[in-house]
Amino acid sequence: MFKGIFIEKDEAGYRAAVSDIDEAQLPAGDVTVRVSHSTLNYKDGLAITGRGPVVRKFPMVPGIDLVGTVETSSHADYKAGDRVLLNGWGVGEGHWGGLAQKARLNGDWLVPLPEAFTPQQAMAIGTAGYTAMLCVLALEKHGVTPEQGEIVVTGAAGGVGSVAVTVLAKLGYRVVAVSGRPAEADYLKNLGAVEVLDRAAFSAPGKPLARERWAGAVDVVGSHTLANVCASTQYRGVVTACGLAGGMDFPATVAPFILRGVTLAGIDSVMCPRADRLVAWQRLGRDLDLGKLGLITHEIGLAEAIPTATRLLDGEVRGRVVVDVNV
């Protein structure tokens, strides 16, 4: 038996609770991992609270991230004792995830824990940080350099935004953070932002084109925010889109794309190929200031994850939440 967050849905309703789970209930997979830490992401919050249709089958163990030690393996790349991590692949949605003390998984979804990180640090980064690094890599791929101008990061006080600000600042970019939480301005400046703007300036419908300002962008919000960022991006600038915290809609025009040659680059972290994941984690080991992870992260126990999920969705949680599943 092991402990985990167990989500059920039946005639009695939708509910999530910390439960004792029989190992025999674990889903099919060729690697069994003793989990040490997981995280709490926006998608996990939706799964735990039932506010969004994230969970595709029941019962479900949420948790789109995990790190731990291989207990048993029939996969050629892994043996007992190996330290591994996982981000995405539909885990916590269609396959039992990391908010439990054990997980059984497809070994193709795993990557070795980079030597640069402790298990806790790897989860302090988690899907959010790995997604932020994919955005940075996309900006670089499209030729955006620090000399070209400012990079705007929306939803900057959240997990993706916090890591994006930190990495971009270390790489020499002039980073402007956008947040709906004025109290987090000092926090964001400590991460490396040179200016903090109120999200209200981006959240209302805007003009098809606005004054050119941004050389690049990392957007986790979507909706009017993404449309306004695109409208104010410089000629041949690049906008990376990786989230929908403000909505799935994109109420924009083609003007930024056909008049200014703006590139809108979509970032998918869930099904991202393994080779790209390895590059992202390698770059995180080089380009993320680990000394700032303490500013970004706080740690909770498994039982705290359920009430924290509601606070996360309500915009009351700063940065990253690491979950020690054995506490």
Backbone structural class: alpha/beta
Helical coverage, percent range: 25-40%
Overall, the morphology is: globular
Provide the β-strand percentage band.
Answer: 25-35%
Order of helices and strands: EEEHEEEEHEHEHEHEHEHEHHEHE
The CATH homologous superfamily of the largest domain corresponds to Medium-chain alcohol dehydrogenases, catalytic domain
Low-confidence stretches: none
Write structural notes for this entry.
The chain has ten helices and 15 strands. By secondary structure, it is an alpha/beta fold. It folds into two domains: 2-113 and 292-324, Medium-chain alcohol dehydrogenases, catalytic domain (Quinone Oxidoreductase, Chain A, domain 1, Alpha-Beta Complex), CATH 3.90.180; 127-266, NAD(P)-binding Rossmann-like Domain (Rossmann fold, 3-Layer(aba) Sandwich). The strands form three sheets. Strands 3, 4, 5, 6, 7, 14 and 15 form a seven-stranded mixed sheet that branches. It has a six-stranded parallel sheet with strand order 10-9-8-11-12-13, sandwiched between helices. The protein has a two-stranded antiparallel sheet with strand order 1-2.
